[in-house]
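Practice problem 4.
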């Protein structure tokens, strides 16, 4: 039973990868490249690189512990097989990161990641229900869905930022702000149904501008409290907070633009690659945003 489940998961992942337009044979090379980038990040920034790897794995483990998914597994497999599957999934998911951490002799972080993988195999998280308010309206839907899938990560980043303020580490605070901003951009992976756009009376430019305004407002609800506190506590370094804020003001509209360049399909490898590149080097956004904005307008004319 477990072997059949793993084969099914492999086929699903293979189909999703092929949907990006890339051959399946490229997948191992992309995994190696991603692993090398994580390794390089650790070489350059051992502490913040370790935090980034832990937080990324934390979010993945959190998604695997989603209640509906685990309820399905419990109803399908015996209790023993269920926990074996969960342990195996978490182990496969975290193994590359654990290997990279151990390669740099970061034993403490590797042990933390192993413990998280074991702990999350026995935990189940339910998304917030309608009775629990969220800080976002239903329109646009991206932040409502995204927040319910990542609220634990957001809370953890806020906790790390609080530690950064306490130990007077401004770089840790800005790292947390950047992590929150990147999380917000990932909310725009899922496209809405086409009839949502058919019902809109806006022009493509008006539609995108509304998305920009609402997305930025909702993202700022997350990051402004941290940035304002940063500017108050580390008053001599307020310019760093301004640079990060400026990057967010460009990064989120760029992520929205890429979503509607790819629409109606999900954002795939080409768009994700461009987004990661721009997140690594912000000035690229200024050069690429107009080009992709025009492409998004042309694409939206088919639906609005």
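Answer key:
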């Amino acid at each position: 039973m477990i072997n059949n489940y793993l084969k099914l998961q492999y086929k699903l992942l293979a189909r999703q990868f092929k949907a990006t337009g890339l051959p399946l044979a490229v997948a191992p090379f992309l995994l190696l490249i991603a692993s090398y980038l994580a390794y390089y990040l650790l070489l350059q920034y051992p502490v913040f690189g370790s935090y980034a790897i832990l937080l990324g794995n934390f979010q993945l483990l959190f998604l695997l512990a989603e209640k509906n998914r685990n309820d399905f597994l419990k109803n399908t497999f015996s209790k023993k097989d269920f926990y074996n599957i969960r342990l195996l999934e978490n182990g496969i998911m975290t193994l590359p990161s654990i290997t990279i951490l151990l390669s740099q002799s970061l034993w403490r972080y590797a042990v933390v990641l192993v413990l998280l993988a074991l702990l999350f195999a026995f935990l189940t998280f339910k998304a917030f229900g309608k009775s629990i308010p969220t800080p976002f309206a239903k329109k646009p839907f991206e932040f409502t869905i995204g927040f319910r899938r990542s609220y634990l990560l957001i809370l953890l980043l806020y906790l790390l930022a609080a530690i950064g303020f306490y130990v007077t580490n401004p770089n840790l605070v800005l790292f947390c702000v950047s992590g929150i901003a990147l999380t917000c951009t990932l909310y725009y992976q899922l496209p809405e149904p086409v009839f949502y756009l058919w019902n809109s009376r806006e022009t493509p430019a008006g539609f995108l501008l509304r998305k920009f305004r609402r997305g930025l407002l909702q993202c700022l609800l997350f990051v402004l409290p941290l940035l304002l506190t940063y500017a108050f506590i580390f008053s001599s370094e307020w310019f760093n907070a301004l640079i990060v804020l400026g990057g967010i003001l460009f990064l989120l509209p760029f992520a929205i633009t890429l979503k509607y360049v790819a629409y109606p399909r999900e954002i795939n490898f080409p768009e994700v690659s461009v987004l990661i590149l721009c997140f690594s080097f912000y000035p690229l956004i200024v050069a690429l945003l107009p080009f992709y904005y025009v492409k998004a307008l042309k694409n939206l004319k088919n639906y609005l």
